[in-house]
Amino acid sequence: MTAKILDxxxxxxxxLDRVREDVTALVAEHGRVPVxxxxxxxxxPASHTYVGMKANRCAKVGIHSLRIDLDADxxxxxxxxxxxxxxxDPTVDxxxxxxxxxxxIDERAAFEAIAPSKDVDGVTRTSFATMAFDxxxxxxxxxxxxxxxxxxxxxxxxxRHAVVVGRSPILGKPVGMLLLARxxxxxxxxxRTAGLADHVSHADIVVAAAGSPELIRGDWIKPGAVxxxxxYADNRGDVEYGAAAERASYITPVPGGVGPxxxxxLIAQTVEAARHHESAR
Length: 281
Hints:
Layout lengths: L3 E2 L2 H23 L4 E7 L3 H17 L2 E7 L5 H13 L5 E4 L9 H6 L12 H8 L8 H12 L8 E5 L6 H10 L3 E5 L6 H6 L3 E4 L17 E4 L11 H5 L4 E2 L6 H23 L1
Parallel strand pairs: 1-9, 2-3, 2-4, 5-6, 5-7, 7-8, 8-9
Helix pairs in contact: 1-10, 6-7, 6-10
């Protein structure tokens, strides 16, 4: 068996084409361009690359990207103040705080400073709760992108056993909740899980979100399983790609799988936020 590729670049391109049409319609109707504010703390090269990629995608669909660069030694209180100001700014539709922030920053406090109506990256407690209770709101961008990628390939979820490896509040936990809402049976695994290989070997769907290169070995994969690799470290994913591709039915490449879907979801939710803000005026 050779796995089919879950091509995030192609699916994301289709989403962004539709977003471009939505932006054109919004500008024609309301006379303004949606604005995504990106907040970057420090000089992490990877973070600068990611923010640059997001700005490029924004420009291609007609969204304005407002970039806020802050010194690495900024305090949590000063960062929170900056985000509160963006939350109160009526010209800003979405706010992205680039993860990770320096170790001395209370990242959760900074996330919670984002107004829920502008939380287009889906990182606040409010967004997690509304997503978990299926009450609307914004999904976490990477989990939302994963679900859109699975749907684009018509991969059935009802009744299937999904194993999520990773429990971060902006990736592992929310993707499990989204799968549960689609009637999958979900098992969470993490760094303290005993018998990880056994859990993975019984999964119909594997979502690797641990941030540990090639943690999941190819021979653990159940024949015919769907493998979604959301890891990215040292240009490698969390899954031993070559060996896993010989057993899986579908698999995401790294890069080119989950990453483009994250950005597309973030931008689509920014336009959705802009529409909500216009309807509330």
